[in-house]
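Chain A, query sequence.
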Amino acid sequence: MIDGNSARDGGEVDLLTLWDALWSGRWVVTGVASAFAVASIAYVLLATEWYQAEVVVAPTDKRGGSGALGNLGGLAALGGVSLAGLGASSNQEPFALLKSKGYARQFITEHNLMPLLFTQGGLFDDKGDIRDAVRIFDDKVRSVDQDRRTGLVTITVTWTNPALAAKWANDYVRGLNERMRGEAIREAERNLAYLNKEIATTPVVAAQQSLGRVVESEMQKMLLARSSDDYAYKVIDPATQPNRRYSPRRSLIVIISTAIGGLLGSLFVLLRRGYRSRPASSL
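Chain A, predicted structure.
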């Protein structure tokens, strides 16, 4: 029967044996850990540095959607058309456009980003097209997140040049506002042309009055679009040039690599010690 003292003695002997093995192979452990440390230092010094710039925006309420829908309600009812739910869906349009590949394609083309994206994105030849550029832009450069509670939207741009990262983040929001402003103005102009034509050809006074209210709403929407730079999103916190890199995290990489090297060195020493002790123990 083995008592508790014997078990404790056996555990102490095992720990002493383990420590003796590691101490006898300390130069191997130190050498492997040092090699990993040197390799990790060389990597972090040669690795490309990436920076992140963020711009925080809030949805604006300047598009006049609710007023237009209210004025259109009576006229739409006459034609059997329901406008319920259009206001809620229009509020999601700017956010969907921010994340869309179509707007990313427009932004890349307008700023001539394809050569830069191909170089930094890992496609080092001229065989790529706009689809490859959009994929790199989505995966590595631009991200869009929305706070469900506050509705605030954060656009993050990650790039090797901190000044360009901040510029692209601000330009990304500015370009979206300009695009939606232009679309709203063109849509209002088309609607006004159609409505004025209908008023001129409609003899019913009630219908003319309803159309007149819709004309007023469309004119208000067009004026708001022309007078507002922050048409879809108002910039709450513009992007500024970051002064600290986002990656690589040099200290963390070196520490983890050195620890892995020490662990592998210790494992090698213990395995070699066990391999050498097996023939002696079998005698």
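The beta strands are 51-59, 142-146, 153-159, 233-237. The two ends are 26 Å apart (CA to CA).
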